[in-house]
Amino acid sequence: MKKFEYGMAKNLAGAFEFLKEPDAKIKAGGIDMLDLMKEGLESPKRLVNIRSVQALNFVKKDEDGNLRIGATTTLAEIAANSEIQTGYRALAQAANAIATPQIRNVATLGGNLCQRPRCWYFRSADFKCLRNEGDICFAEDGENKYHAIFGNKDDCVFVHPSGTAVALMALQAKLVIANKKERREIEIANFWVTPEDDVTRENILKRDEIVTEIILPPTQKNTKSFYFKQKEKQSFDWPIADVAVALEMKGKTCVGSKIVLGSAAPIPWRIEKAENVLQNKTISVSLARQAAAAAMADANPLSQNGYKVPVFKAVIYRTICRATGIDPFAA
Ligand SMILES: Cc1cc2nc3c(=O)[nH]c(=O)nc-3n(C[C@H](O)[C@H](O)[C@H](O)COP(=O)(O)OP(=O)(O)OC[C@H]3O[C@@H](n4cnc5c(N)ncnc54)[C@H](O)[C@@H]3O)c2cc1C
């Protein structure tokens, strides 16, 4: 790791002041940032700690009924928050399923959304891949067991790593992004950058910008959300397939839905084909299975990850069932 200056911001203004150094990078919990620095993927001249900014750690309702979450709120705090558990269940479940208790106590929501890909070629000093100043995606024809089955025709086939992003997409969250001079609010769906658009970045953030808040729309009593993460091993592990659904119900009829896949594509991947199957229908195990089949209709597995298709089918239908309180294993 190269030498660097360390700026401990006390407030947002202080953080932006530290970020004036052109070679400065943000650290929140530091779980990913420190790994990136040790791996030589990041060598900032100055590291700006924003986890020390108390004003970015909160969960509160605003006057319009939105739930606002400060970007440095930890994953453990989100998982334990009763308002999130009841009104935005998929987010509490996603936060609670990430990594280990120790990591969840330190990692922040903003950092989780902005973490960089975990593709083993990108993370290895031995490979200069497309995303790391090279000109080839080694995973495309190489070891691609954990890689993308959607959005993988553009030469960089990593999967988006954030579990909370999947839930926040299904819950139609917005992000507040700020720099020293201004702040803007964007739909989370517009935050991600695909490899086709720019292979060197995963989101639209500019160097001097900070995600300050995540905004969830007011809870609707009839919206049922659920997140499920399928791991290869049952102790802490990354997902091989994760799914978040948010279903708007009128009695037993689904009148609107969002179904989003994680570990499937370079961005959290919304599956409108599956949503259409549920529209204005009574949810049942059989309908949920049809939606799962529709979700996988356009999958494009690589040489080693064809197994993800049946895994996703199972995870999607079970998640739809669980969101609505149906036993997925009923006949
Ligand atoms: C063993 C292990 C297992 C894991 N399993 C999972 C898993 O199953 N699911 C999952 O989702 N994650 C998993 N992770 C990843 C981990 O959850 C993330 O690294 C962590 O959430 C990052 O949050 P942080 O606050 O530490 O971010 P940092 O490491 O501080 O920052 C990460 C990146 O985001 C940028 N950043 C941070 N905050 C902001 C902000 N507010 N605005 C703009 N940019 C910002 C930083 O500059 C950096 O580039 C795992 C990690 C480990 C080590």
Structure summarized in a few sentences:
The chain is of the alpha+beta class. It has helices at 12-18, 31-38, 75-80, 82-87, 89-97, 101-106, 109-114, 163-170, 272-278, 285-295, 308-323, and strands at 5-8, 24-27, 46-49, 59-61, 67-70, 174-178, 183-187, 210-216, 223-231, 239-250, 253-262, 269-270, 281-282.
Structure description:
The protein contains eleven helices and 13 strands. The chain has 331 residues and is of the alpha+beta class. Among the domains are: 56 residues, Uridine Diphospho-n-acetylenolpyruvylglucosamine Reductase, domain 2 (2-Layer Sandwich); 101 residues, 2-Layer Sandwich (Enolase-like, domain 1). The strands form three sheets. A five-stranded antiparallel sheet has the order 4-5-8-6-7, with no helix packed on it. Strands 9, 10, 11, 12 and 13 form a five-stranded antiparallel sheet that branches. A three-stranded parallel sheet has the order 1-3-2, with helices on one face. Helix 2 links the parallel strand 2 and strand 3. Helix 9 runs antiparallel to helix 10 and helix 10 packs across helix 11. 46% of the residues are buried. The structure holds flavin-adenine dinucleotide. The site of flavin-adenine dinucleotide has 29 residues, from strand 2, helix 2, helix 7 and strand 8.
List keywords for this structure.
alpha+beta, globular, 13 strands, 5-stranded antiparallel beta sheet, binds flavin-adenine dinucleotide, Enolase-like, domain 1, 21% strand, single chain, 331 residues, Uridine Diphospho-n-acetylenolpyruvylglucosamine Reductase, domain 2
